[in-house]
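Q: Can someone sanity-check these two? First one:
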Amino acid sequence: MENYRFAIIAAVTIFVLVSMIKTRNRFEVLRRAVQAEKSTISVYVEKRADCIRDALNVIKTTYKLEVESIAKLTQNEQVNQLAHLGQKYPELGNSAIYGHLVKQTMVLNDDIAAARVLLIGNIDTYNSAITAIPANIVAFLFGYKKETLIDEENLEEHKKLKKTDVDFSQF
């Protein structure tokens, strides 16, 4: 009888340990997916900042007042204003370099939006996994914390990701 009791306790202990390890591994996969999406968004934001800077370099000599007013906007607003500037000044809109930069900036905007959708899904899945009972006990034991959603203009403030702003003092 004593052997059966020991076997049952050992089986339950092994089951609990295996369950904890599997749950922890699942959390780690989800956490890495969240981190990967954050990194992707950060890269896209940096590329978009580069495109905006290049587009402003193209127009800075002729359209200095516009560059100064665009400099005060957020990156999303800058993209829209750069596109509008090309419509306002047809000779600028017909410039191959300017057109390419504006188009590339808009594509990056779309890429950022798509990456944000993936990030939100990954954060929701991760947060649901670490708050579900009894998995929340494992999350607590291994130090997994709830992730918060971020907005693109405040990546650095919210998640301490690298954010490259356009330095308008050079224009």
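And here is the second, same format, sequence then tokens:
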Amino acid sequence: MKISQITLTATAAVEVGRKTADLSMTKTAARTEVAEGSAIRFRLTVTNAGPFPATDPVVDDVLPPGLKFSQASGDGTYDETTGEWKPGAIGVGLSKTINVVAIVENGAAENGDITNTATARQLTLEDDPDLSNNSDDASITPRGLDIQVLKSASTSSAAEGAGPKNGLEAS
């Protein structure tokens, strides 16, 4: 009996290079003029154009001076202290959305328009081939309260020794 030697060869495909996930950011405000003390809703949407899933995207959305965090609802979690929104993994061609509500602080109108910017990035090793669409902003114009205080004095109907009548009116 003759024994032959048998050689087996195995090949494996190895992906070279990094995976890419093209994230884009869209941010809108529910309205552009907001009274001090009122709430404003910002809608943030992050989209993945691929060609690979985004496994760990993060959106930085720190509220600027003049806005105070109230609440957030939608996909993922929002950390009001750091301004980080973690929407969770996003498949190719899919989007995730969150609504962030803030209160316009009293005195904000004195500083003019408020611009709120959101920027999408990845925590993992995926590259983003197009960073030009990773940020978007929404601007609002805070409006202060228009209050006038008028004071008047009248001596026409004052009785002798009674002094003038004072009146205070707010509008």
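A (reply): Looked at the second one. The CA atoms of residues 30 and 100 lie 11 Å apart. The longest strand covers residues 39-51.
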